[in-house]
Design brief:
single chain, 8 helices, disordered N terminus
Length: about 190
């Protein structure tokens, strides 16, 4: 019960943090400019920009588009890994998705959004399905979990207006971080 309550508060905290960083018309542009993933500034050594961009959103519809599947995927990941671990691993996975975007794009770009974190949560769930493969037919579990995760990434993350590289990068990073976390958990 305690784990479930902590997970619920963690989800609320993430949602409120994202919402607060969006609100405030005058401050919004300053906050967005200060925390957005800006490839030019990252090239000049500001690697920390990969992290705050995960909590910022362009508008309310962008926030809701991330919060809707994000609350489901992150909540399920919290049930599998624990609230703190899932939040940290998802956040790191989202930041690594931003790093992937930076590494694979030659042109200058700017982006914000938690979609990489959402996909990292989904990657954590796909990795967790691998740990279940020991109990029943391994190929069936791997097929169900990993292929279902990949299909959800395609369904939710391949919009022409979105940062597909950050989505796939977040999913892959979340999966790899999930596998490492499961190894340490035993």
């Amino acid at each position: 019960l305690l784990r479930c309550c902590v997970g619920a508060w963690g989800l609320r905290g993430w949602a409120w943090l994202s919402a607060l960083l969006w609100l405030g018309p005058g401050a919004r542009s300053d906050v967005k400019r200060a925390g957005e993933m800006n490839s030019g500034l990252v090239r000049h050594g500001e690697w920390g920009r990969c992290f705050p961009a995960v909590t910022l959103h362009a508008d309310v519809s962008h926030l809701m588009a991330n919060a809707t599947p994000g609350l489901v995927f992150l909540g399920l990941a919290m049930g599998s890994y624990g609230a703190g671990h899932a939040l940290l691993l998802s956040f790191l996975g989202g930041a690594l998705g931003n790093v992937a975007t930076f590494a694979l794009h030659d042109a200058a770009f700017r982006n914000v959004g938690a979609s990489g974190m959402v996909m990292a949560s989904l990657g954590l769930l796909a990795a967790h399905s691998l740990s279940q493969a020991r109990h029943e037919k391994p190929a069936l579990w791997i097929g169900r979990g990993v292929i279902a995760g990949c299909l959800l990434v395609v369904f939710l993350g391949f919009s022409p207006k979105s940062d597909v590289v950050a989505h796939v990068g977040g999913f892959v990073a979340g999966g790899l971080l999930g596998i490492v976390a499961l190894k340490f958990r035993g």
